[in-house]
Amino acid sequence: MSTVMMIDQVQETIRVYSRPGCHLCEELIEQLLPLVDGKLGIQVVDIDSNEDLVAALGTRIPVVEFRSKEVCQFHLDVPAIQAILVDLDRS
After folding, report:
1. Can you give the residue range of the structural domain that contains 61?
2. Whole-prediction pTM value?
């Protein structure tokens, strides 16, 4: 099951692969929220709900993905997120 947060008429979504009780995941999401507020939606995907995701990601979480490309893992790459936002502003 996945949870979509902060969509409010936002066209694009950034995806965070996570699992319940993952403190790194919680920290990354807390840091990501103010960066993308009103610019991108955030979809938090619980990898434990999908065997294929567990096999692919295992303990390599959190992973942030945008447009089917991995942006960062374990820790938020703020410059990478800011670059995504700049590119969105240009479009």
Report:
1. 2-90
2. 0.86
